[in-house]
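Per reviewer request, we include the raw input and output of the structure prediction for the construct analysed in the revised manuscript.
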Amino acid sequence: MTIRTFLPLIAPLMLTLVALAQPPRSTAAEGAQLFEAKVRPVFAARCLACHKGAQAAAGLRLDTAEGWKGVVASGKLLKAIRHEPGATPMPPTGTKLSERELAGFVEWVKRGAPGPITLAKPDPRKHWAFQPLHLSPNPSPGRSSLTGKGESKGVEDLLEAKRKELGLSRSAPAPRSVWLRRVSFDLIGLPPTPDELSAFLADKAPGAEERVVERLLASPRFGEKWARHWLDLARFAESHGYEQDYDRPHAYTYRDFVIKAFNDDLPYDTFVKWQLAGDEFAPRNPQALFATGFLGAGTHATQITKSQVEKERYDELDDMLSVTSQAFLGLMVGCARCHDHKYDPIPQRDYYRMLATFTKTVRSDYDVALDTEGDKKKLTDWESAHAPLVAARAAWEQEKLPAKLAHWVATVSRKR
């Protein structure tokens, strides 16, 4: 897998609650598994921005079992979630659940709205964020859902199946000029030039669209456009933040690494390892060293008193841990800084064990050799030119120096 194929996949997640029924007999493990698979992701995507913590909107907390059980038991949310007349629609924006998602919530409510079994001894193997990725089965293997015959279109078949599930119809094909504008904005963030538009409209040969896509993927603008999404996740900035907000003159090196990683199709495992410990994995590779800017891209207090040193250092370590967990694990481990995580199976003990891995990470600026191969050649050339001089010096020391030393000693002795 490469960094290009690991672009974020964002699917719409929606929430509803349904009327209570007598919960069937089921084990706690089954209920917890249902919650993890079909409920927690929807809560996280659509609800917790407003309904968590002591300041939860309308006093409704969905970050604790006590909070959601009370609301489910009251039955007051049913009409609101269904957007029925006379009720305040919740969520206030977005669409309703699909039939498949609704069925998951119906079953969850019937089971008594269970949550995680316990946070005392979490089993990461069962948590949704740690499950391996699987390819979705093609809904119509061997046949195209677009034409009803021929080879399957893969992604197109998956999209077609989802459209049918949501009751949506296909839009009419866009004119070629509109298609070119859309794909250009999507891949490089810029509109096509007049010359590019004219060339595409004049290209009537098969595969014209594929050639446009290949050209855009090969453009350096591709990395510039898509790297910004990762830079947002990495909290990249060209200044330190806080009220002083001093500039970071060398911050661009990390930005340029991310752009180059996308343009070069860097393997994703290398992309991850270099950002976390590029100086250890490839200490002689400038790009690997630039990649470690990921850990230092957060805010940095530049004017502190002696009593603040320990606190500011710890805040920086917490920032490194939090962004690492969110970027690479899909979890907000930072919540366990003060207590066992209330929603994910992250105990406080694991937070500090993970934090300890960053304690020897120090923010600093240092010179990096950019042309290592060129430097090696220069060194080789210099050593070749220097070798005769070294040999001449050694010959002089062996053949002439002893006599000169003896003469000097004799001369000094006569003077005394």
